[in-house]
Amino acid sequence: MYDYLIVGAGLYGAVMAHEMKKRGQSVLVIDKRPQIAGNVYTKEVEGIHVHQYGAHIFHTNNKEVWDYVNQFATFNRFTNSPVANYHGELYSLPFNMYTFNKMWGVVTPKEAKEKIEAQRKEAGITEPKNLEEQAISLVGTDIYEKLIKGYTEKQWGRKCTELPSFIIKRLPVRFTFDNNYFNALYQGIPIGGYTKMVANMLEGIEVRLNVDYLENKDEYDSLAKKVIYTGPIDAYFNYKLGNLEYRSVRFETELLDEPNFQGNAAVNYTDSETPWTRIIEHKWFEFNDQPKTVISREYSSEWKLGDEPYYPVNDEKNGNLYKAYKELGEKEEKVIFGGRLGEYKYYDMDAVIAAALEKSRNV
Ligand code: UDP
Predict the structure, then answer these.
(1) 222 shares its domain with 319
(2) What is the reported pLDDT for 315?
(3) Domain check: are 355 and 234 in the same one?
(4) Residue 180: inside a domain, yes or no?
(5) Helical pair 194-201 and 11-22, crossing angle rounded to 10 deg
(6) Chain segment 141-177, per-residue pLDDT in tens
(7) Is residue 158 part of a domain?
(8) What is the pLDDT of residues 125-150, one digit of tens each?
(9) What amino acid positions are annotated as catalytic residues?
């Protein structure tokens, strides 16, 4: 009999497992995949750590979380500065003075602000009601058309006029020459890959892989006093109220016999004609110098049963359905639901870790 059964060896599960063990509890971690680390899993190919389930760049303002992860890995000085490719024209991201200069030839922050203000006025926006209006009021029509509209509509499979404005507020807008995508105090990539970092969190803990909890739920439940479940909450209840919607991503990964494909970790294709949203060149997360390179083209798709769920769709319909599942979850006395899938939340890594640390103190 274990004190805790933890379903899912991703970040939430690994932090919980580590914390419970530290408190003297016995822990069993299970995962249906053949490997640990959930979606931060990195696979080594030709010495390059490939982010198999999408690029993960660790960034946080939370000193406790930063100190916490630094126990398990040394972080390098990687700074995320994606480049946007619009029909072969390249722009700096996030939106900053380099972007404004290239787009309009403006030189000073004052000129950039005037340009944006003029475009916002011309579009007649006072109170932004959706992502399109929010974007235009932040950066003007030209940037919206070239760098936001196509990318966002490919990413979410919905019109910008039908999307909530908070999605775009994740992106900083700066009137300085600063290509750092994140405003966070701390940022970097764990040297040696995320898998190693998660393995360090799970050190000394029993982990069983290739194990499907939901298929043998009663058997696994009988092994422990408490269950921490980090899978999709709707799957836990066998979708009995209907399924929550996700955006999924398909990756086409290639090993190329050349040292440098695009000169940057991330290039976003912001037009609507290119079918992929971005290309990741994994070696640049760790400043590698191998003779070969690995790239992944990312295609965004609507999630269907059987696909990997990635991004929760945080609209009203799904929000209400999640609430109903959450109420069912609260009645499961022995079970704690956590993480991006367990809580149906567009969580960054640091927020997942903070939530797990908080929960570990309360149980
Ligand atoms: N976005 C955009 N153009 C870009 C990059 C991002 O319009 O080149 C918008 C898009 O709506 C996206 C949102 O900003 O959904 C958030 O982007 P972020 O990079 O935070 O998404 P993630 O890395 O989580 O996929």
Answers:
(1) yes
(2) 81
(3) yes
(4) no
(5) 30
(6) 999 999 999 999 999 899 999 998 888 887 899 999 9
(7) yes
(8) 999 999 999 999 999 999 999 999 99
(9) 170, 174, 247, 278, 298, 346, 348
pLDDT tens digits for 252-305? 999 999 999 999 999 999 999 999 999 999 999 999 899 999 999 999 998 998
Same-domain pairing of 15 and 163: no
The structural domain count of the chain equals 2
Number of neighbouring beta carbons within 10 Å of residue 109? 15
Answer whether residue 61 is part of any domain: yes
Residue nearest to atom 12 of ligand 1 (CA): 152
Contact 29, 6 (CB under 8 A): yes
- Ligand 1 atom at minimum distance from 148 CA: 7
- C-alpha 170: how far from its chain's center? 12
Q: Tell me 56's DSSP state.
A: -
Task: Give the mean pLDDT of the chain.
Answer: 96
- Together in a domain, 42 and 23: yes
Token reading at 313: 């769709």
Dig out the tokens for 149 from the structure: 């509209």
Cα separation, 165 vs 188, whole angstroms: 28
The residue whose CA has the least distance to atom 20 of ligand 1 is 170
Report the nearest-CA residue for atom 15 of ligand 1. 152
Atom of ligand 1 nearest to the CA of 55: 23
> Which range of residues forms the domain containing residue 318?
2-74+188-243+312-362
Q: Which of 168, 201, 224 is the last residue of a domain?
A: 168
CB-CB contact of 236 with 214 (8 Å): yes
Ligand 1 probe mutation, 148, 165, 248, most atoms within 8 A of CB:
148
Which protein residues are within 6 Å of ligand 1, measured from CB?
Answer: 84, 93, 147-148, 151-152, 155, 167-168, 170-171, 268, 270
Residues 346 and 218 in one domain: yes
**Does residue 163 share a domain with residue 115?**
yes
Please tell me the residue having the least CA distance from ligand 1 atom 19: 171
DSSP class of 190: B
Residue 68 within a domain: yes
Ligand 1 pocket test, pick from 40, 90, 143, 155 with the greatest ligand atom count within 8 Å of Cβ, gives: 155
